[in-house]
């Protein structure tokens, strides 16, 4: 490339234009060469201006920034893995059949009748407790990242963050379903259970949360 030892102040306007054109041409050539070689230019990441917010932001967004950030990343990966494994095990027919109290046969007025007691078994509550622990961490992580985000608008529009929100919604819908189940009694149990099973499928989106930790 072409370099000039004379100060720029000594250039006349025509020489300045030629120099600027040469620099622009050089930058364009370098840009094309990098693109052909598969070089991906890093986009500058906006960080919080406040020191404390920056520390918290790096702990959740930059796993390589510190030991605390590495611990946070490991905990997040473990929680995601446990949640996904729990969801898969929960869908197994042998487990699913044990999650709801089975109908019982009783003798009423000389005739045997099948009665569905409703409610959930200990298997249901085991998975529910696991889900509660995982969702508690996901909510803490999501809220913390939102609070320290340099741009709240960009955070809300970010695709992975939308997936994070969608993946925890089923838990709160499940709480609402359980509330109405207790309120309506056995009559509303079957319909509530069906809705909950459909809503739980959305939890599979949590597998995409792993992409944040394996870039």
TrEMBL record:
Its main location: membrane. The keyword Phosphoprotein does not apply. GO terms for cellular component: voltage-gated potassium channel complex. Pfam families: Ion_trans. Residues 70-215 form the Ion transport domain. GO terms for biological process: action potential. Keywords: Ion channel, Ion transport, Membrane, Potassium, Potassium channel, Potassium transport, Transmembrane, Transmembrane helix, Transport, Voltage-gated channel. InterPro entries: Ion_trans_dom, K_chnl_volt-dep_Kv1, VG_K_chnl, Volt_channel_dom_sf. It is found in: Membrane. The keyword ATP-binding does not apply. The chain crosses the membrane at residues 68-89, 123-140, 161-180. It is a multi-pass membrane protein. One of its GO terms (molecular function) is delayed rectifier potassium channel activity. PANTHER family: POTASSIUM VOLTAGE-GATED CHANNEL PROTEIN SHAKER, VOLTAGE-GATED POTASSIUM CHANNEL. This is Ion transport domain-containing protein. It comes from Rotaria magnacalcarata.
């Amino acid at each position: 490339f072409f370099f000039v030892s004379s100060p720029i102040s000594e250039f006349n306007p025509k020489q300045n234009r030629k120099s600027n054109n040469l620099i622009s041409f050089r930058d364009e050539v370098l840009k094309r060469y990098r693109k052909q070689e598969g070089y991906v230019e890093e986009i500058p990441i906006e960080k919080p201006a406040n020191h404390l917010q920056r520390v918290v932001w790096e702990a959740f967004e930059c796993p390589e920034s510190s030991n605390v950030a590495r611990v946070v990343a490991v905990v997040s990966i473990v929680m995601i893995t446990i949640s996904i494994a729990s969801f898969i095990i929960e869908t197994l027919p042998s487990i699913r059949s044990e999650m709801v109290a089975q109908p019982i046969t009783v003798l009423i007025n000389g005739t045997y009748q099948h009665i569905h007691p409703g409610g959930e078994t200990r298997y249901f509550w085991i998975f529910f407790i696991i889900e509660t622990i995982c969702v508690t961490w996901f909510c803490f992580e999501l809220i913390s990242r939102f609070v320290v985000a340099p741009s709240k608008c960009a955070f809300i529009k970010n695709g992975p963050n939308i997936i994070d929100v969608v993946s925890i919604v089923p838990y709160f819908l499940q709480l609402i379903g359980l509330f109405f189940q207790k309120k309506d009694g056995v009559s509303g149990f079957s319909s509530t259970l069906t809705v909950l099973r459909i809503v739980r499928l959305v939890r599979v989106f949590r597998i995409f949360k792993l992409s944040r930790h394996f870039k």
